[in-house]
């Protein structure tokens, strides 16, 4: 078993109004060192796969087909082996 | 062949009955509902995807509806030249399904916008806008949180050079690129728009500027 941790964010060249609103709030609280804030989604998949590579391929496929919209979102995937029960 | 309209009902659609009512009782078109679990559009030759919050807008607006059983047949129908219209959530579904280019982002203001806006008819040489005058200004309500149309630069150039932009906002409520409110596909048989013409087709509801949208489409079948 593998756990796939997927983070999805609005593409860099697209305005993220939610991130901007939070960024303004952070700045006004005194977090001057925080230069940029982006808000996205986090998805975890538990996958029954034979190898880490297979789990990654499956996750990428799921992202491209459903989990992310390539027109407006980027995604990154981290795959980990689930403790003990592979 | 006269128009046989089908209004697709997804779980969470909430403008389906408004659309059905306008098509059937105001315009007088043969109209039926289509259930999202149906595998086929049957004898319908004009498909409407209504507004609402299909599948609770989970993941992204329209992302899950796009994979509902009926959409496979709607995509086949559209790709073979059939006329498909998506209003509000329906527009989002059409973009997710790849039948229209681009995507609808969260409104720039982060606010849900629900008010009547002024639209400009940018192209009336389409089956969707033929009964309007060119550059005619019309008043139609919008009600959405994710109506901010976005696409990459190449796609935008395509939209412009192929006259695919049919409606723009005079007073942009959501931050959309080039004030885009409604577009058609390159083959001119699929249209999506964020405003709700079905909410502006009877005087009792405050205006009738949306009626010509439906008469344009239905009369194109005569």
Structure description:
The complex is a heterodimer of chains A (86) and B (222). Chain A has 86 residues and is α+β, with helices and mostly antiparallel strands. Chain A has one domain (2-81): Phosphoribosylformylglycinamidine synthase subunit PurS (Mth169, Chain: A), CATH 3.30.1280. Chain A is 33% helix and 30% strand. Chain A contains 2 helices and 3 strands; from the N terminus they run E-H-E-H-E. Chain A has helices at 17-28, 52-67; strands at 2-10, 40-47, 73-81. Chain A is elongated. The termini of chain A are close together. The model of chain A has no long low-confidence stretch (mean pLDDT 93). By secondary structure, chain B is of the alpha/beta class. Chain B has a single domain (4-219), classed as Rossmann fold (3-Layer(aba) Sandwich), CATH 3.40.50.880. Chain B has 5 helices and 11 strands, in the order E-H-E-E-H-E-H-E-E-E-E-H-E-E-E-H. In chain B, strands 2-1-3-4-11-10-9-6-7 form a 9-stranded mixed β-sheet, sandwiched between helices. In chain B, strands 5-8 form a two-stranded antiparallel sheet. Chain A binds chain B through residues 10, 14-15, 17-18, 21, 66-67, 69, 71-72, and chain B through 59-60, 63-64, 67, 95-96, 102-103, 105-110, 150-152, 175.
């Amino acid at each position: 078993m593998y756990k796939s941790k997927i983070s999805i964010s609005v593409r860099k060249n697209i305005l993220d109004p939610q991130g901007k609103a939070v960024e303004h709030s952070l700045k006004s609280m005194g977090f001057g060192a925080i230069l940029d804030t982006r808000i996205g989604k986090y998805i975890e998949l538990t996958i029954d796969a034979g190898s880490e590579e297979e789990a990654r391929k499956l996750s990428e496929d799921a992202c491209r087909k459903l989990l992310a919209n390539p027109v407006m979102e980027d995604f990154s995937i981290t795959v980990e082996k689930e403790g003990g029960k592979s | 062949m006269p128009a046989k309209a089908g209004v697709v009902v997804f779980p969470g659609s909430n403008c389906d009955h408004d659309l059905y009512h306008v098509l059937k009782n105001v315009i007088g078109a043969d109209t039926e509902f289509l259930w999202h679990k149906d595998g086929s559009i049957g004898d319908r030759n004009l498909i409407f995807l209504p507004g609402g919050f299909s599948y609770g807008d989970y993941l992204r607006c329209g992302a899950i509806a796009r994979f509902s059983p009926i959409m496979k047949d709607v995509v086949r129908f559209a790709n073979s030249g059939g006329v498909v219209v998506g209003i509000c959530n329906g527009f989002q579904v059409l973009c997710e399904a790849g039948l229209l280019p681009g995507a609808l982002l969260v409104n720039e203001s982060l606010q849900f916008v629900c008010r009547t806006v002024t639209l400009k008819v940018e192209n009336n040489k389409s089956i969707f806008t033929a009964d309007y005058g060119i550059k005619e200004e019309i008043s139609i309500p919008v009600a959405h949180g994710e109506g901010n149309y976005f696409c990459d630069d190449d796609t935008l150039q395509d939209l412009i050079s192929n006259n695919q932009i049919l409606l723009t906002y005079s007073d942009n409520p959501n931050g959309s690129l080039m004030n885009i409110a409604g577009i058609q596909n390159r083959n001119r048989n699929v249209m999506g728009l964020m405003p709700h013409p079905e909410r502006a087709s009877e005087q009792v509801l405050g205006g009738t500027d949306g009626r010509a949208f439906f008469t344009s489409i239905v009369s194109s079948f005569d």
